[in-house]
Write a structure and sequence with these properties.
With about 450 residues, the protein is an alpha+beta fold. Among the domains are: about 60 residues, 434 Repressor (Amino-terminal Domain), CATH 1.10.260.40; about 120 residues, Arc Repressor Mutant, subunit A; about 130 residues, 2-Layer Sandwich (Beta-Lactamase), CATH 3.30.450. The protein is about 45% helix and about 10% strand. The strands form 2 sheets. Strands 5-4-8-7-6-9 form a 6-stranded mixed sheet. A 3-stranded mixed sheet has the order 1-3-2. A hairpin with a 4-residue loop joins strand 2 and strand 3.
């Protein structure tokens, strides 16, 4: 397990106090501490303790796990990326200036990021000025990914629901498909059928809600079938829990809610396939050997990689893995920054990073040791995977899945053994934010923000 770190989240506590409309003296009274001590916490001169967090939850009804996430580094990185735009080229800011802004005026920072996101997307269909390309993904995609990062990609309610269902329905890891099929029939009157590939074509499964049927393509592999059954259970009996989570995220984009609903039902399915305690123990025991974890839990490479990013239960946290999924054109459909590694929101990935070449070696796992400009080192794993089902020789879509963590955890990851003594490959977040002026892979000049 990873040792719990001291939490300096004074800016979040100060924002909560102002939102609640109470003075320092009033909040200090509710928390059972002195106003002077609360002032020290708000200014990050003292860490917030577990006891204060618990009292905060009781007194103000906050979600302790979400509140306890220190997002200063993530928000600073996002602000740095915004300021890399030529619009701000004349500003002379330091990295400490960015941290100060995040800690002292977080709402202003969020507003700036929102305005810049709208600027990137264009307003009411209007294009940006001539010669300026629109970078980044649709706003609803970034909003969803940001919401997941803000919660460390961990949802206790869904973890608990998966564990409860496993116990109540008597699910066995070695027979999840039959167990979930039985549960859907007994609890929801649903039947499960296999359909010919010529009927389903490249669709792996379909949930016929009104007909109370789950129809599988005969070509769908076991891990896809079990995952789909888990998602169906979530759709049928976890609506209230999922609605509450979505409401708490306060999503702004209408399309984000639908994507979040799909994401949360997928989260529940993964928690059923790879139960938290058992999966965490297996990950640590095998030194995070993905092949071993795939075999033990009947899951795909991507399912295992994604599950590894969710193991953030307080008291039993596993390694903080980051994750990226992109297509051959560099379009990012999944990203989760963690452990000090932040992905770019605007612009592409670093062309010097070996992961961009993963599609040239399908099926192989690329292992690399990389170093960011600030000197921090990371282990990265990249694999090109196929998505969808084969049909009459039609080409399948290929995606690259990247999983990684800080190299400080090398002893706990078996793949680090192969590159432990190797010199790290110099990479950056992207060309705009990388100060390495002599890099032969550079696509365009660095912005002023790269000096921060």
């Amino acid at each position: 397990m990873v040792a719990e770190r001291k939490l300096f989240i004074g800016h979040k506590l100060r924002r909560l106090r102002r939102e609640e409309g109470v003075t320092q003296a009033q909040m200090a009274h509710d928390l059972g501490i002195s106003a002077a001590y609360l002032n020290l916490i708000e200014h990050n001169q003292r860490p917030i303790t577990v006891n204060v967090l618990l009292r905060l939850g009781d007194a103000f009804g906050v979600n302790i796990q979400e509140f306890a996430v220190d997002d200063t580094d993530t928000q600073s990185s996002r602000l740095q990326e915004v300021l890399a735009d030529p619009l701000f080229s004349n500003l002379d800011l330091t990295r400490q200036d960015l941290r100060d802004a995040v800690e002292r005026v977080p709402m202003v920072v969020e507003a700036l990021q929102l305005v810049y996101s709208r600027y990137q997307q264009g307003s009411a269909g209007e294009a940006r000025p001539a010669g300026e390309a629109i970078l980044g993904r649709p706003a609803e995609v970034d909003e969803l990914l940001d919401a997941l990062e803000a919660r460390q990609n961990h949802f206790p309610v869904l973890e608990n629901a998966a564990e409860a269902l496993s116990d109540e329905a008597g699910l066995r890891q070695s027979a999840l498909e039959s167990g979930l099929t039985r549960h859907l029939a007994e609890a929801h009157g649903h039947i499960v059928r296999s359909m010919p590939a010529r009927v389903m074509e490249t669709t792996p499964y379909r949930h016929d809600f009104h007909g109370k049927r789950v129809l599988f393509n005969e070509l769908a592999p076991l891990e896809t079938r079990v995952f789909a059954l888990g998602k169906t259970v979530a759709d049928l009996q976890l609506r209230d829990e999922i609605n509450e989570i979505i409401a708490a995220t306060k999503l702004r984009e209408p399309a984000s809610e639908m994507m979040m609903r799909t994401t949360l039902s997928s989260y529940f399915a993964a928690a059923l396939m790879m139960p938290y305690a058992r999966f965490t123990d297996a990950a640590l025991e095998s030194r995070h050997d993905i092949d071993v974890l795939q075999a033990r839990f009947g899951a795909s490479f991507e399912q295992v990689a994604h599950r590894l990013t969710t193991l953030q239960r307080p008291g039993t946290r596993a390694l903080p893995f980051f994750l990226l999924r992109m297509d051959a054109a560099g379009n990012v459909s999944k990203r989760f920054s963690a452990g000090g590694f932040s992905f770019s929101r605007y612009g592409g990935a670093c062309p010097a990073w070996s992961v961009v070449n993963a599609p040239q070696h399908p099926g192989n796992l690329g292992v690399d040791k990389v170093q960011l400009p600030d000197g921090s080192e990371f282990l990265s794993l990249a694999k090109s995977i196929r998505k969808g089902l084969p049909l009459a020789g039609r080409p399948q879509r290929r995606l690259t899945v990247v999983l990684g963590c800080s190299f400080e955890y090398a002893e706990q990851v078996v793949y680090a053994d192969a590159v432990r003594e190797a010199a790290p490959s110099p990479v950056g977040t992207n060309c705009r934010l990388c100060p390495r002026s002599r890099c032969e892979y550079r696509a365009f000049p660095a912005s002023g923000a790269a000096r921060l």
